[in-house]
Amino acid sequence: MHKSVMDITTLSALAEPNRMNIVQLLRDGPLTVGEIADRLGLRQPQASKHLKVLSDSGIVEVRVDANRRIYKLRSEPFQAMDYWVQSFRHIMEDRFDNLDNYLRELQNKEKP
Amino acid sequence: MHKSVMDITTLSALAEPNRMNIVQLLRDGPLTVGEIADRLGLRQPQASKHLKVLSDSGIVEVRVDANRRIYKLRSEPFQAMDYWVQSFRHIMEDRFDNLDNYLRELQNKEKP
DNA sequence: TTTAAATATTCCTTGACACGAATATTCCCA
DNA sequence: TGGGAATATTCGTGTCAAGGAATATTTAAA
């Protein structure tokens, strides 16, 4: 039984502004390196480097088209994130948080 | 109209193994610094430092109980992550990816 | 009031990484 | 075949963050 282990690599790849922007951009469809660099105001080498990080972490995949590389998002990392976040549903619906705290406080008081 | 902007701070806070472990641990309920350090085999100062990062990023909140600090997860970051990941639903349900690719390929071929 | 427990903070060192600049590689086409 | 376009890679540099060790702070209890 695996208890929803989130891959650190995915998160650290996303935890960089330029790469996050690239991912948001690719949400609307695949793009070439040049298009990505243009739209985000990046220099081509930086774009390539960030795309390599995203590719190594499995967030992005590349399709070679002659001269150009077309990058697109892969589904798996997002499915994994979704699955992981869902393991915190009981945290997200904090309707019972006050009750939980109250019960916990009671338990603490009677354990000196 | 905000297009689901994910906070980088949240991601970089989670993109560290020890902090990820802390978060996974707190999923089962609030804990004190000492308990967290014990269960994860961390030294107390490191645990405190990581908890500070988690606290500064809003992932965790603290309740002061005399000598001890009880840390618990906050709901907002996870709700935000959930919302953000959901903006990639069309990526996650890759049922039509093959069709998409096919159509896109066709379009590329006829644009020399 | 002194002592011990729980936690936070500081200082230092080291390693990772992002950027810029330059260069290498691959491919198409005239 | 040579040249230009698109992309990747390398190298050097500066910054930032994590760990270790030591210390400061707060609180309860004797």
TrEMBL record, chains A, B:
GO terms for molecular function: DNA binding; DNA-binding transcription factor activity. InterPro entries: ArsR-like_HTH, HTH_ArsR_DNA-bd_dom, HTH_MetalResp_TranReg, WH-like_DNA-bd_sf, WH_DNA-bd_sf. It holds the Pfam family HTH_20. Gene3D superfamilies: Winged helix-like DNA-binding domain superfamily/Winged helix DNA-binding domain (1.10.10.10). It comes from the Bacteria. Residues 1-95 form the HTH arsR-type domain. This is ArsR family transcriptional regulator. It comes from Paenibacillus elgii.
